[in-house]
From TrEMBL:
Role summary: Catalyzes the NADPH-dependent reduction of glutamyl-tRNA(Glu) to glutamate 1-semialdehyde (GSA).
Limits of the Tetrapyrrole biosynthesis glutamyl-tRNA reductase dimerisation domain: 320-418
Protein name (Swiss-Prot/TrEMBL): Glutamyl-tRNA reductase
Note: During catalysis, the active site Cys acts as a nucleophile attacking the alpha-carbonyl group of tRNA-bound glutamate with the formation of a thioester intermediate between enzyme and glutamate, and the concomitant release of tRNA(Glu). The thioester intermediate is finally reduced by direct hydride transfer from NADPH, to form the product GSA.
Length: 449
């Protein structure tokens, strides 16, 4: 059984192509059924997110597996095969394993080290299992990938440092107060950045989100998404007496909060006021930093935090790659055994059948021999077989631990004409030189490691 993945992501295709290659939950069953109708495909897992779609299959043959997945994707998306090849990347064998481990660890994401992808990998595996679309190889692969993703985050902490402005803003507020669970936040603006900020505030358990916008209807619609409250834009200064955090991101060409209007409010407040200005041009008067009990961060401060954290994530990503390499080796050892053990069993079985057949012929020709003589002949045949098979079996076990182990096993099966249960005899095999320096599409294309 061979691992094959064909995928598309934010680096290889525009959003209009990714949309065509996406899989809604209500059509997953249909997709699994169509993929498994191909004779070469034994198991399937589909990972579909807003930035990527990847089809993982366990195939009886590599080339036919790739061909089947590409044909399926072309039919599904209404694209030509040439378009599928242009927009997608593919990995096979242990490159496919390495790729999934990096995906689950957040090393292949648009935002390096992001956390959400691990849950999406887990969900993809659970859904495939619920439709009985997966198989033993893919089950083990995805379980291992989920473990690797958790291990990378636990041992490196790569997801701890915010690398988006909205996330950095909330993290700074959280660090300032220690906890946001008893805090109130005012969001000025109802655009995309404010939406992301509100999601992060909700994640960190903010007690209440208050939203204001020049369009009150838009503010109300926005607030409902987060069980918040909308206030008219002209009430900003009134609410500043109550809130703990203010995060402003509007497209206004002028200041929204002025020092002279905020100063009398600050004098009435007992608790500190934390302001974060994400807007360009700025929404909040920079002179406010001179007021007591007020802390203000602007977009430059946030961007410095993001840049510093991104550099740290890149450093931690190197640690993560080392973890992945170790886990890849462990998976290779397990996966190789799935090839080599049945092959060794088939070889020993065939040798035993040949030995017994030839012994019967020899003993019949010898005629009336004593039990001692019969035992000597049997021991001779047994010894010859064991010694002849010892070195090939030892070598095969060693080759099985290399990235080309499955190919050596396949050659071994063909040399001895073995019929291994659950596998098809192969019509042709690559030469050893090609195995050592395989630069065709079997390795990978579309993305670099």
């Amino acid at each position: 059984m061979y691992l094959v993945v064909v995928g598309v992501n934010h680096r290889t295709a525009p959003v209009d192509v990714r949309e065509k290659l996406s899989f809604s939950e209500h059509r997953l069953g249909e997709a699994f059924a169509k993929l498994k109708s191909y004779p070469t495909i034994d198991g399937v897992v589909i990972l579909s997110t807003c930035n990527r779609t990847e089809v993982y299959v366990a195939a009886l043959e590599i080339d036919n597996g790739l061909k089947a997945v590409r044909e399926f994707l072309a039919n599904w998306a209404g694209l030509s095969l040439s378009e599928i090849k242009n927009y997608t990347y593919n990995y096979t064998l242990y490159d496919a394993v390495h790729h999934l481990f990096r995906v689950a660890s957040g090393l292949d994401s648009m935002i390096l080290g992001e956390t959400q992808i691990l849950g999406q990998v887990r969900d993809a595996y659970i859904k495939a299992s619920s439709f009985k679309a997966s198989n033993k190889i893919l089950n083990t692969l995805f379980q291992h990938a989920i473990t690797v993703g958790k291990k990378v985050r636990t041992e490196t902490g790569i997801d701890k440092n915010p690398v988006s402005v909205s996330y950095a803003a909330v993290q700074l507020a959280c660090s300032f107060f220690g906890s946001l669970r008893d805090k109130k936040a005012l969001l000025i603006g109802a655009g995309k950045m404010s939406n992301l900020t509100a999601k992060h505030l909700s994640y960190y358990g903010i007690e209440e989100i208050i939203v204001t916008n020049r369009s009150f209807d838009k503010a109300e619609t926005f607030a409902r998404q987060f069980n918040g409250t909308a206030i008219p834009f002209e009430k900003i200064y009134d609410i500043l007496l109550e809130v703990d955090v203010v995060i402003s991101c509007t497209g206004a060409p002028h200041l929204i909060i002025h020092k002279d209007r905020l100063e009398p409010i600050v004098k009435k407040r007992v608790k500190p006021l934390y302001l974060i200005d994400i807007a360009v041009p700025r929404d909040i008067d920079p002179e406010i930093t001179n007021l007591p009990n007020v802390l203000l961060h602007d977009i430059d401060k946030l961007q410095n935090v993001v840049t510093k954290n991104l550099e740290e994530r890149k450093r931690l990503a190197e640690m993560a790659e080392n973890i992945i390499e170790k886990e890849l080796k462990a998976f290779i050892e397990w996966h190789s055994s799935q090839f080599v053990i049945p092959t060794i069993v088939a070889l020993k079985k065939k040798a035993e059948e040949i030995k017994n057949k030839e012994l019967t012929k020899a003993l019949n020709k010898l005629g009336n021999v004593s039990e001692r003589e019969k035992n000597i002949v049997c021991a001779l045949a047994h010894g010859i077989i064991n010694q002849m098979l010892h070195t090939p079996i030892v070598q095969l076990k060693q080759y099985a631990l290399t990235p080309q182990g499955h190919l050596y096993t396949e050659i071994f099966q063909n040399i001895f004409n073995l019929q291994v249960e659950g596998e098809r005899p192969k019509a042709s095999l690559p030469h050893l030189e090609e195995m050592e320096d395989d630069n065709d599409e079997r390795s990978y294309c579309g993305e670099s490691r």
